[in-house]
Amino acid sequence: MKAIVIHEFGGRDKFIPAEVPTLEPGDGEVLIKVRAAGVNRVDWKIREGMLAGRVDREVTAG
Question: Which of 9, 23, 44, 47 is most buried, with most CB under 10 Å away?
Answer without folding.
Answer: 47
